[in-house]
Amino acid sequence: MNSCLSSSRWLGPGFCILLFVSSCSIIPNSDSTRQTWQEHQLKAQEIVNWHIKGKLGFKSSNQGGSANIDWLQREEQYQISMSGPFAAGRATIKGDKRIAHMQRGKQHYSDTPQGLALQLTGLSLPVNDLVWWAKGIPSPHQALINNLNLTPNGVATKFEQNGWQLIFSRYQVTSQGNLPRKIIGQRGQQSFTLVISSWRFPSN
Questions:
Q1: What is the pTM of this model?
Q2: What is the pLDDT of residue 18?
Q3: How many CB atoms lie within 10 A of CB 9?
Q4: What's the rounded Cα separation, in Å, for the pair 102 and 149?
Q5: HSE (CB half, 13 Å, CA atoms) of 66?
Q6: Where are the extended beta strands (E) located within 26-76?
Q7: Tens digit of pLDDT for each residue in 56-108?
Q8: Which of 29, 39, 117, 192 could form an S-S bond across to 33 if both were Cys, CB 3.0 to 4.6 Å?
Q9: Pairing between strand 190-200 and 64-74?
Q10: Do β-strands 156-161 and 100-104 pair in parallel, antiparallel, or remain unpaired?
């Protein structure tokens, strides 16, 4: 079994994030930069209530589009509203990491989060991983990351995880730390771009 996966079972996802850095990837940065990156990950991992607004664009081998996105995350529960061309007006998805429900016009659908994303966009978008990627950190539910690049102040500009090549930019200093406002992901002929216009942190 992968060492990160077995360690996370006993020591929790926070420790496994550190293992991603120390054991599963090569980081061409100084010790101080790596230490700052580890601290940044742990701080970002603690952000469990957040609200972002922005735009989501996507492209697959046979489909493409964009939409305004309003994403409210409260621990494992989320509500994602999208409006624009590909959403055909407005679509709202509510759920957790296991099951999601979508209302699109008068129609209602239930599936896994990734299944509904595929139905809506034609893109096999890993919603459960995107919860973490939106904050510029790896998902602790995946085994490892590769090709990690860091800025001198210890935030990621890119890494690869779960088959996706990810690029992070336009970092903004918020009350909860330094967070990206643009995330680009590519996996084969599939790609997405999430541009965040605002970060908010509801307390309850």
A1: 0.82
A2: 41
A3: 10
A4: 36
A5: 8
A6: 49-59, 64-74
A7: 998 887 778 889 999 999 999 999 999 876 555 788 999 998 999 998 888 89
A8: 29
A9: unpaired
A10: unpaired
